[in-house]
Amino acid sequence: MFRNNLRLYIISGKNDFQRCKHTTKLDQIREKLKAGPSLADFVSEDSPKTWDQYEGKLKREKGERERLRLPPWLKTTIPTGSKFNEIKQQLRSLKLSTVCEEARCPNIGECWSGGKHGTSTATIMLMGDTCTRGCMFCSVKTSRHPPPLDPDEPRNTAHAIHQWGLGYIVLTSVDRDDLPDGGASHFAETVREIKKQSTEILVECLVPDFRGNRDSIAAIANSGLDVFAHNIETVERLTPFVRDPRAGYRQTLKVLETAKEINPDLVTKSSIMLGLGESDEQVEQTMKDLRSAGVDCVTLGQYMQPTKKHLKVFEYVTPAKFAQWEQRGQELGFLYTASGPLVRSSYRAGEFFITSLLKDRKAKSL
Question: Which of 72, 234, 256, 316 has the lowest tally of Cβ within 10 angstroms?
Answer without folding.
Answer: 72
